[in-house]
Amino acid sequence: MFKISFKKSVAKDLKKISKDQVIKILDKIETNLSTSPEQFPELKGKFAGLRKYRVGNYRIIFAILKGNTVLITRVKHRKESYK
Distances in Å between the alpha carbon of 71 and those of 17, 18, 20, 52? Predict the structure, then answer.
C-alpha cells in the first residue's frame, strides 16, 4: 500500500471543480493510486519524473517518492493540466 499525500496547490485545484467531480476524483485516487501507482504512464520532457492518471476529463499529476509515498501535485482539467 502506498501513502497518499497532497501538495498545498491541490486544494486550490479542487476548489475550482464541482463537488461531485471532487468526490469521484478523491475516491479514484484512494482506490487506484494507493494500490498500484506505477501502472500509470510517465510524462516526458519538462514533466519527466511525474506520472498521470485520468479520471474523466481531469488529469491527476503525481510522483512516486521513496518510502512508498505518492505525492499528488496537480488536479486539472485535461485542457489545462500540462501548462
Answer: 20, 22, 22, 12
